[in-house]
């Protein structure tokens, strides 16, 4: 007679995964990378100017691609983070852009980098939401694919920096979303909290009504030793795992990553990423062949392209297992320090990536917003001729 073993607890797979994720990756992170570098900085045929104004700082764009596969919306501040929110639309996959579009009056009062996101509620109603951070974090929405917008209104009695790094659907219910941001004590509450040394806190908040309202943020991680911030979301190809890549603002270590296998209920401890993925404001999308393209500002501790606008090509499994990936790409050369690359990344139906950001693209001029168009098949060909860096 066959014996019957008791069923495994439903939580055991998650616990086993988190136990693995807490441990160090197989490869110890280094300060530099060894994978090839593809350089597109001189390929001006790939570049499109989204907005440029002599004598005016234009920075920090984010984008969203609508379901028609060709309409891209872009928002960015007229200034360094703080400044009136500017808004443009492309109807041809980012090849050409409209003039600056009308916006609500309250958008002129934005204090922080705006971010734009697509959300869908439980009934299937599609909306766009726009965030503006610091205290209080404010939100606006559009019911008509960005043709008209509401005013900015407080999302709650809280705030933060770069609200939101991402807004992504989770499987806890229809219309449920998860978002993250960070704060250093200055903006989470009405009165700043002065910590010495400075403490960075990573926060998570969720919505169960398609992104219209958001819960009180939950602190996930606090540290004065490393300053983790500006989170970027990547879901695994099978949908079971979430990775969040983060900037390390103290510049003591590489960028970090955390993982969740239960839709953000619990997270692994942060661990260092390989130097090849070290940067600020990671933003990534999948190519049709299942590989990832992730765009960011290069802050690798040892890099010939430090301070430039960089892309990384690899697979989710590389992130999971602490591997360097396939190759890196210099998208454009930034001519002043590291002030560039808060990117938006979109993948068109034909596999073309449209990645958009700001930077000092012209020597001795203020930054402006530009995009670069590429396909991974093109980069693969170029990468074959490159030696390891």
Topology of helices and strands:
Layout: H1 12-22, E1 37-39, E2 47-51, E3 62-65, E4 72-77, E5 85-90, E6 115-120, E7 126-132, E8 138-142, E9 153-154, E10 161-169, E11 177-183, E12 200-207, E13 218-223, E14 228-235, E15 242-248, E16 256-260, E17 271-272, E18 279-286, E19 292-298, E20 309-314, H2 316-321, E21 327-332, E22 344-347, E23 353-359, E24 368-374, H3 376-383
Parallel strand pairs: 1-21
Antiparallel strand pairs: 2-24, 3-4, 4-5, 6-7, 7-8, 8-9, 10-11, 11-12, 12-13, 14-15, 15-16, 16-17, 18-19, 19-20, 20-21, 22-23, 23-24
Q: Describe it for me?
A:
There is one protein chain. The chain has one domain: Neuraminidase (6 Propeller), CATH 2.120.10. The chain is built from three helices and 24 strands. With 389 residues, it is mainly β. A five-stranded mixed sheet has the order 1-21-20-19-18. It has a four-stranded antiparallel sheet with strand order 2-24-23-22.
CATH topology term: Neuraminidase
Strand percentage lies at: 35-45%
Shape verdict: globular
Give the structural class. mainly beta
Helix content: under 10%
Structurally, how many domains make up the residues? 1
The CATH architecture: 6 Propeller
Indicate the radius of gyration in whole angstroms: 20 Å
Helix count from the secondary structure assignment? 3
Low-confidence stretches: 1-24
Strand order of the largest sheet: 1-21-20-19-18
Oligomerization status of the protein chains? single chain
């Amino acid at each position: 007679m066959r014996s019957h073993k008791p069923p495994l607890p439903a939580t055991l797979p998650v616990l086993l995964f988190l136990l693995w994720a807490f441990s160090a990756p197989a490869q110890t992170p280094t300060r530099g990378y060894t994978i090839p570098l593809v350089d597109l900085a001189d390929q001006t045929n790939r570049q499109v100017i989204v907005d440029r104004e002599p004598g005016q700082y234009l920075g920090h764009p984010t984008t969203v691609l609508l379901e028609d596969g060709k309409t891209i919306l872009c928002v960015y501040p007229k200034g360094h983070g703080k400044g009136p929110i500017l808004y443009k639309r492309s109807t041809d996959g980012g090849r050409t852009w409209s003039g600056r579009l009308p916006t609500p009056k309250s958008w002129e009062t934005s204090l922080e980098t705006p971010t734009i996101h697509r959300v869908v509620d439980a009934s299937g109603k599609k909306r766009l939401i726009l965030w503006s951070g610091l205290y209080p974090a404010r939100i606006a929405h559009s019911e008509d694919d960005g043709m008209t917008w509401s005013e900015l209104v407080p999302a709650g009695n809280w705030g933060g920096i770069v609200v939101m790094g991402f807004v992504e659907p989770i499987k806890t219910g229809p219309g449920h979303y998860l978002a993250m941001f960070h704060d250093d004590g200055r903006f989470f509450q009405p009165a700043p909290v002065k910590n010495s040394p400075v403490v960075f806190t990573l926060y998570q908040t969720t919505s169960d009504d398609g992104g219209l309202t958001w819960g009180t943020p939950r602190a996930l991680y606090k540290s004065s030793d490393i300053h983790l911030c500006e989170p970027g979301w990547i879901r695994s190809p099978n949908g079971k795992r979430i990775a969040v890549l983060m900037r390390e603002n103290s510049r003591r270590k590489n960028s970090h990553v955390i993982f969740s296998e239960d839709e953000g209920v619990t997270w692994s401890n942060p661990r260092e990423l390989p130097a090849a993925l070290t940067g600020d404001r990671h933003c990534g999308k999948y190519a049709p062949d299942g590989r990832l393209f992730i765009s960011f500002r290069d802050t690798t501790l040892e890099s010939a392209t430090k301070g430039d606008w960089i892309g990384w090509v690899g697979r989710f499994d590389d992130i999971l297992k602490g591997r360097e990936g396939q190759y890196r790409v210099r998208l454009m050369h930034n001519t002043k320090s590291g002030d560039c690359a808060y990117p938006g990344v979109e993948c068109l139906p034909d596999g073309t990536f449209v990645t958009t950001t700001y930077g000092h693209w012209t020597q001795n001029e203020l930054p402006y917003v530009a995009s670069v168009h590429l396909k991974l098949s093109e980069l693969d060909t170029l990468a074959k001729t490159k030696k390891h860096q």
